[in-house]
Amino acid sequence: MSPLEAADECVLSEECIDQYLWSVYERAAKVDTIKVEERIKVTVEKNGKSRTVTKTVTKLVNEDFTWKDPDAAQKAGMSVAQYVIGGMDRGFRLRLYHLFRALDDAGLAPGMTSGFRDDYRQSIASGNKAVTGNSYHGGSRRGGYGHGLAADVVSVKGETRSERCSSSDRMWKWIDVHGKEFGIGRPYLDKDPPHIAPIDGQEYADKRGVDPKLAEKGGTATGLAEQLLRAPNAKAANRSKISFIGGWGGDVAECRDSPITITARRAEGFGVSCEFHSSQRESSNGWRMRAKCSSNTERWNANIRLTVSAGKLTWSSERGTTTYVRCPVVSASR
Ligand SMILES: [Zn+2]
Predict the structure, then answer these.
(1) Ligand 1 geometric centre to CA of 121 (Å)
(2) pLDDT at residue 31 is higher than 50
């Protein structure tokens, strides 16, 4: 086993993160209690005459929606994993990963009942749902595949459905308290309890308002939250000044496909991760880091110099020098 596997955490590989998210998806039963309106005929007596009227009654029924994602994935020509996990925004997946790991650690056993949904999938959804195309799960008006910014989560802890329901309640409360640390919240609270989204995204802002702490920095929220998230131990005042923090790529296409992510504490990308063990600011736009780096096959120490100038980052180490462009921040309003 490689040291990375032994560490039992996806230090960086996107594939590993996606696999973990998929396991969280797979373990959740796709069952829901939904309200169904039914029109029934009843006979009423009025003034001694009996007549038949139609009444609408609401019933709670269990719905098994296990078939829906596979059906939609097949229509899209993808595996279910590619569809439900791969259709979500990359940064959001990373947040989900950290959130789910924390929930697992807290003994709350998260399960995902829904990730990405395209317009077709949305059209066959039941219960609380947005108009087809408007869903932040990935509707066409929100950017479609690759831009899903919502997931539905429940707890799979408990033998019976009612035990799992109360575990889910506890889990949602936990997310209300701790979710922000992971950049995730519940936009609708108890109106749609399982639905979670980035706290700096449009959906959350529309329903719950903008976090003033995020707003005052003025940044786009996604970029800013990434900074806050990735540098939890850094002093808040310094965070916004660390200009190397963010996503970088050789060019814009690489930003889309495989950006590297740099935080105050680590850099990740191309199957390599580097943990910064010490950093020293050399100038207003230059830093020197000592780092431990690892890939699937090796580990090494690196002395890295980062320079940021005019939106470009120069990364120099014993292994060479590369220049990257800053990746555009994914708009949270897609
Ligand atoms: Zn949802």
Answers:
(1) 12
(2) yes
